[in-house]
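Before a colleague's protein record goes any further, I have to sign it off. Would you go through it and say whether the fold makes sense for this chain? Take the sequence as given and treat only the tokens as open to question. The record follows directly below this note.
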Amino acid sequence: MIVIPAIDIRQGNSVRLKQGKIDAETIYSTDPVFIAKLWKAKGAQRIHVVDLDGAFSGLNSNKEIIKQICASMDIPVEVGGGIRTMERLKEVFDMGASYAILGTVAVYNPEIVRKAVDKYGPKKIIISIDAKDGKVAIGGWKDITPVDMFELIDKLKEAGIKDILYTDISRDGMLTGPDFSGLKKISKTGMRIIASGGIKTVDDIVKLKGLEKDGVFAAIVGSALYTDDFKLEEAIKKAED
């Protein structure tokens, strides 16, 4: 199992939001590139980067920072936030990203997902399923749609998608523990799953590792990285045991 540290970038800073809300923002660093290098030095095998400005507005204002992060890493970097066109997708890969994460576009323009899989292959494209009470959220989680997440997953499978990133947005940044029940339900779809949202302790990683047989192959850790309850090096070791 892979433990993936998250770096959310807003207005050039490394930040964390609670439940995706801008008014619940904490700035952890003014140098996201340094933060990426720090997590790499602590043993990270992959880095998760989200352009929050892109997610909220569709603008690519953090392009140079993300490009610097990718250039400074010798491990894979997955990038998401505001990727809603094939042109923007190409830009993300040109920046050096190993994987691109699509979210909003999978709901309102699923044809882009098909084109992305056809052009780059299913291993390079991850779809973010951000949900609240089973309904998919889009636009940086601002809008809760009537779309059922399992109906969306079925459509994604038809488009050739293999990997999804599942976040229960009510848990994100809240340090309340992962949505194990939701993950178990999603595992029945046969998708490979990256778990995100609510991770607080290394014990949460151990419990998620127990779902490997159900398709949970990675876990994204955000706010917990900045608490005394979570040590990245220990979590990585437990995930590899």
